[in-house]
Task: inverse folding
């Protein structure tokens, strides 16, 4: 059973509810305390009893009784009040209220309820005011409110089950094997059964309802249905006794909606901004913009709709892209343009827009669709690249050094004006030609360009002008990858002036070395001849004096002996100084003897093992070359004894094809490239200068921990000789 309890005092309502539940344990009590709540509750109907306070905030219990009795003629009505009197009680009983109780006598409420329910159960027919038949809503009223493809009627049995009474013929194709409809009437899709259950639950509580769900036809196709149903009540008791329904097959509509939804989702999910404009008034106003366009511009949808997209240009209307865009709209054709637009906050962005007309079935343009792409970064990058390219082009055209760009086969593709002026060729004359055309190939200088063996160090060669004139150049070669192609960059520097200055300095250095060597020879000779002879004479005089003083005291003899020792030391020192300045053996016995003497002296002083290999024939070179070779050997052995920490030295000299080949190798700790090329290493620089003065070449091969090898190649005669 279900009771309706109407009282706007929560405390009194709670006491009444407790009193009822003491007697009627399984009853469902619906409480109402507000007028708005009452109307929606009454529409549910299906109440077995109504209990109401007489004096409510919005009405009286008597008025409420008449309202409910007009709708539900046979529902018992009891007034339970705390503010009534005898006159009120008489008036309510006369009006037809089933019972009247004061809240002071709430304990008698359950007995009054039992009497009312027994009274209703004993009636076979509920008599209304106008007639004694069952009052129901007219069926034509329900059917007139429904338009549909299909229709059905269901009655509700005494035990609450839904039973189909009839349905329209088209619904039969949705029954399996023409069997009667069962349960909810149709083969509902398994995923939508909860929707249908909720739909019927709502109808059975007295509410009109519309539900959309899927059904499966006999051939297995899925259809979308919109089911609009009305509950029909017994006006006397207010209970739902029948359902009328109308069904529309909305499959095509849902498919179209799904397609539109998919398209809408795709457009809203697109990273590009999309707008659609209407052509009706020829002003092309925006009727749609996706989320990307909203994010791109900073305007909300309401600020965009109904406006021409031109407002995004502001006052910046003198743009080539806008002119092209207007011309395309006039000619009814597609257009792609890049224009400057401005966001809501005033910031500039570059917009690449593709505009296309949209035609209707009559092939008339009704709309335009514009796809926008924010290309600000691309435009700024292009501008930056253009600026950098202009700067690089300016540097390329104005740098003093010649720059040649060639392919991987060393064929020229481009060169700068400095290279044109340097070699006397124009770019047209050299394009496609090999770089070797610009390099001299005479007998004195050859350069083979091995691009697969590039080094970080520039190489020196002889350039060849168009007129056939050669000149010294320094060439740097680098390799880059550009657009999946290898390019060779030749940086060429005319070093004619520096070579002239270098040659002048080298001549001056050689002159100073020669003058120094001559001065050493002169000083050594004078020390040896003058000072040596005087010391010898002094020693002879001292020997004579010693003989004369043999009979003198021992103190005199001790003194003369000490003087002898001092003079011997002085003679030895003079000989050493003279030899260091200029070994006389080099002048008297030649280079081979001088080298042997130097090696023996090196072994005695350093204690290292040294192997010397000399040619069998006499080394026939002039005095100056012999001096240069000896000084190079002397400097190399000195460096080994001071820095190498070696224990073995091999010195090899050969004379082949009028060329002296010298090799000095040790097994010491070696040198790094930085140490070998250190400009402050004057000993090494001096060896190079001595070799180059006589058109020779000196090289040093070394790496840390693997010793060092000095090689000298010295021709017997120079070209200028």
Result:
């Amino acid at each position: 059973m279900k009771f309706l309890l109407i009282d706007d005092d929560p405390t009194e309502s709670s006491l009444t509810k407790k009193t009822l539940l003491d007697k009627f344990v399984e009853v469902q009590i619906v409480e109402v305390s507000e007028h708005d709540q009452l109307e929606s509750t009454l529409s549910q109907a299906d109440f077995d009893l109504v209990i109401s306070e007489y004096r409510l905030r919005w009405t009286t219990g008597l008025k409420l009784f008449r309202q409910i009795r007009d709708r539900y003629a046979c529902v018992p009505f009891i007034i339970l009040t705390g503010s009534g009197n005898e006159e009120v009680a008489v008036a309510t009983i006369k009006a037809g209220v089933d019972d009247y109780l004061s809240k002071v006598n709430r304990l008698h409420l359950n007995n009054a309820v039992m009497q009312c329910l027994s009274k209703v159960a004993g009636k076979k027919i509920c008599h209304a005011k106008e007639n004694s038949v069952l009052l129901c809503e007219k069926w034509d009223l329900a059917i007139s409110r429904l338009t549909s493809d299909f229709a059905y009627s269901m009655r509700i049995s005494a035990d609450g089950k839904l039973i189909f009474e009839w349905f329209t013929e088209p619904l039969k194709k949705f029954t399996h094997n023409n069997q009667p409809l069962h349960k909810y009437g149709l083969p509902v899709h398994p995923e939508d059964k909860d929707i249908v259950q909720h739909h019927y639950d709502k109808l059975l509580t007295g509410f009109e309802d519309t539900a959309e769900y899927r059904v499966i036809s006999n051939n297995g196709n899925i259809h979308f249905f919109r089911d609009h149903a009305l509950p029909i009540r017994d006006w006397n008791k207010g209970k739902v006794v029948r359902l009328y329904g109308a069904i529309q097959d909305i499959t095509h509509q849902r498919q179209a909606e799904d397609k539109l939804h998919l398209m809408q989702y795709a457009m809203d999910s697109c990273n590009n901004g999309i707008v659609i404009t209407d052509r009706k008034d020829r002003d092309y106003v925006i009727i749609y913009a996706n989320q990307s366009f909203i994010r791109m511009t900073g305007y909300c949808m309401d600020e965009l709709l109904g406006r021409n997209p031109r407002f995004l240009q502001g006052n910046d209307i003198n743009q080539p892209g806008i002119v092209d865009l207007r011309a395309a709209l006039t000619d009814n054709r597609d257009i792609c343009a890049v224009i400057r637009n401005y966001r809501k906050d005033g910031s500039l962005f570059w917009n690449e827009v593709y505009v296309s007309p949209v035609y209707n079935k009559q092939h008339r343009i009704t709309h335009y669709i514009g796809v926008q792409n924010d290309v600000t970064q691309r435009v700024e990058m292009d501008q930056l690249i253009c600026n950098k390219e202009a700067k690089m082009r300016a540097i390329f055209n104005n740098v003093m050094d010649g720059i040649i760009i060639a392919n991987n086969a060393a064929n020229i593709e481009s060169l700068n004006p400095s290279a044109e002026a340097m070699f006397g060729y124009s770019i047209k004359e050299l394009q496609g030609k090999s770089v070797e055309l610009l390099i001299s190939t005479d007998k004195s200088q050859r350069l083979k360009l091995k691009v697969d063996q590039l080094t970080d160090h520039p190489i020196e060669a002889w350039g060849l002008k168009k007129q056939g004139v050669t000149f010294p150049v320094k060439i740097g070669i680098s390799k880059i990858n550009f657009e999946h192609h290898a390019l060779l960059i030749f940086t060429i520097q005319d070093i004619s002036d520096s070579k002239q200055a270098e040659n002048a300095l080298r001549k001056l250095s050689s002159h100073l070395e020669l003058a120094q060597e001559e001065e050493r020879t002169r000083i050594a000779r004078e020390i040896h001849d003058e000072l040596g002879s005087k010391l010898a004479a002094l020693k002879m005089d001292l020997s004579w004096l010693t003989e004369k003083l043999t009979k003198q005291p021992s103190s005199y003899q001790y003194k003369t002996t000490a003087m002898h020792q001092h003079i011997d030391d002085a003679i030895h020192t003079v000989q050493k100084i003279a030899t260091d300045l200029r070994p006389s053996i080099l002048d008297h016995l030649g280079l081979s003897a001088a080298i042997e003497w130097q090696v023996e002296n090196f072994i005695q002083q350093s204690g290292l093992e040294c192997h010397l290999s000399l040619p069998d024939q006499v080394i026939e070179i002039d005095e100056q070359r012999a001096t240069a070779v000896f000084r190079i050997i002397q400097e190399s052995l000195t460096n080994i004894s001071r820095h190498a920490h070696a224990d073995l030295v091999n010195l090899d000299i050969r004379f082949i094809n009028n060329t002296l080949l010298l090799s000095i190798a040790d097994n010491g700790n070696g040198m790094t490239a930085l140490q070998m090329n250190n400009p402050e290493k004057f000993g090494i620089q001096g060896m190079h200068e001595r070799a180059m003065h006589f058109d020779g070449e000196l090289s040093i091969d070394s790496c840390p921990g693997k010793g060092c090898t000095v090689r000298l190649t010295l021709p017997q005669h120079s070209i200028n000789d």
